[in-house]
Task: structure prediction
Amino acid sequence: PLGISIYYTSVKMRRKNIFYFNFSTADHIGVGFFKYQLFPSPRFLVINSAFANMLGYLSKREVKKENFSSLFVHQEDKDNFFNALQKEGRVKFFETIFKKKNRKKFWVAITASYLLGKNSSRYIEGIIEDISSHKEAEERLALERDFLQGLLDNIPDAVYFKDTCNRIIRVNKFYAQGVGLKPEEIIGKTDFDFFPYHQAKQMLEDDNYVLRTGKPIVGKIERTLLPDGSWNQVITTKIPMYDRKGKIIGTMGITRDMTAYANTEREKFSMVMNALEVLNRALEMRDPYTSGHSQRVAYLAEGIAKELGWSEERILAVKLAGELHDVGKIVIPLDILTKPGRLTELEYKIIQDHVEKCYQLLKDVNFPFPLAKIIYQHHERLDGSGYPNHLKEEEILPEARILAISDVLEAVTSRRPYREALGLGRAIEELKAGAGSKYDEKLVKIVFNLIERYEHKPFWMNA
Result:
């Protein structure tokens, strides 16, 4: 500041008329100036009014009676200040607590130099600033920060903050325990330091999506490989962080471990599937002609779904639908189910009713996909000629369209109670004739590509 420059210049020049002019100016800038003699007799030689006011004195003359060392509240601070001053010759912005005339404490910052004069005299020369308001603000921020960290550390989920370069800038205790490191060992690192490359890459893409669009990612289910080599299943939410001007400055993520829940749900799912598999086997025991039919349909449907590039969950849905699509036939009288001749209209209606029976059997089971509905629609056709509800076009689920083609292809190429197998050629003719009208044309092309890949052999027979 100009006042400091004027002050030091005036001291060096030793011109009395300029000296008093400059300190008169310095009295109005709010920073305390002082020159204090350490030896031979400790005393203030020069101070400005701001310094006197800071200490709660009415005049500069009163301050000159004080000892500089006595202003320090803490002995340790005083020792550190003088040691640093003697060792370095200068101290910059040394923070400590002073006491006022009325013994009230306040924070100051001292910047001072150690000077040698004539006849072995020694001095301290510098400035003092009242930083009480800054320290109070720091304490409030520290309190808020500690409160926030305490809150975060008591959340039983991994909570983490990243900057715009996707570097971790803050984590809670749960996150640190998950990666087996201290929080300070995590700061500045990225997901690539803790997770396999392909997994970290996906996390990076998610973070960049949030940064780029400002849109959150909510409830994403993931599997993560932990440092100890074990896998867990988690659900993650990521949101953008903004500064006061509305600019995105990073992301915040919350990840919840759902491994135990997922394992429980998987066990429940397995129990249900085992029960349904028992029904399926019971059906095959009643009707030897259907033995292996469901497995072959499931194999075909799975292959078509993979060609479409569907997700694992969606592929599983269509595979399970194939395995269970005829389980409703278990309630059909055996003499109708295995009748070798042509069915009557009533008998055919009873056979058709198996999709309704299967739907009623599965509709109340909590699957992660519409399994009952897929099976319910697998005899529907795009032109509305199917059953039971004569659905058309987009009314039919894509999974049900796959199941319809797989069912027809397997049935035509296999032996039935009322006829011998008609062969692959007949099945291809049926699909060609119905492509675009009864059957999804895109799916028919995929089936033909698969057949060609397997050299025009019914590859599903080995399922």
About this structure: The first strand starts at residue 32 and ends at 39. The longest helix spans residues 259-286.
